[in-house]
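tool=predict chain=A
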Amino acid sequence: MRIHHLRIQAFGPFAGREHIDFDELADGGLFLLDGPTGAGKSSILDAICYALYGTLPGSRTGSRQIRSDHAPADLAPEVLCELTIGDRRFEVTRSPAWMRPSKRGKNKTTEQKASSLPREFTPDGWKELSTRNDEVGHVLGSLLGLDREQFTKVVMLPQGGFADFLRAKAKDREDLLANLFDTSDYARIEEEFSLRLSEERKKTESLEARLSASEEAIHAEARTFLAGREPMGEPVEQEEAVLASPDDYFADYRARIGQIHRLAEAEAQKLRTQRTRTGDHARALEERRRVFARLGELQAAAKPLWTGPWRSSECQQQAGERRPGRGSARLSCAGQQCSGRLAAIHIRLGTAAAMAKPGRRHGL
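tool=predict ok
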């Protein structure tokens, strides 16, 4: 916003018509409103605020004591402000309600209602806009991006108003500065990051829930596996209470399960050795059974020879009595053959009996 001209008539301490050319003052850069107390410095700012919003700033909002008490009775109070907002140039003329002289009115005065006359400069010249007081303030305020309260706190601080701004709530200052500097882009960026943060937090919570469920499942499976396999379960449970982090728990589980695996492997090795010995013993017993069976067969085969007529003494005696001469020689030869067979059977029976003794074949 840039103010070009300001005209004040019968307004505040100004009894007559005053004209201020701000373009001429602005050529030198910054300028200062200076003067003694009551000279009308604040009234110039009041006139600008009244031209834009139709009310006075600060606690005097809605005050009807705007017209100068020193002005002629028939001189209407009026403020004209020419300004540029963006690339649009406006001229606003406002007149507050006042009691003008009248021959017919009560006390020879009648109330003159407030009026507004805004115009916009176009290529075809000045064009009149709405004449409703509330609409003029709304249009200009929307173009400025500030309502009257915000305008008086940022652009034009009344006396003591800056302290009020500093003491204002953070939310109020935030809204005011956001409208003043148009932080909508930053607000959208902040909202986008807030949405992303919310989504990432949801993902993190989901992952943490899954991780916690997995940890609980591992704990339950590990405890189930260890239950009954450790010789001292109660002291181990007491040691588990000392562990702080999941890593400590899992390291403890790995160590304990590894110890159980090593014990199981040692026990399996013992069982394998015992199985080998048992197999050897079973084979030895089978061999003994086979030898005893063979011994029984040989004993059954030798029994007729021991009890039959082929014993050597009887054979020789019978041979001598019945057939002397050449027949006797044949019988003698048969007796010798019988004696040889009996000796061979004795040797085989002795060998089988020796082999059948326990522990003889496999050192058992």
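Residues 246-307 form the longest helix (62 residues). Strands lie at 2-11, 14-21, 78-85, 88-95, 98-101, 109-112, 115-122, 125-128.
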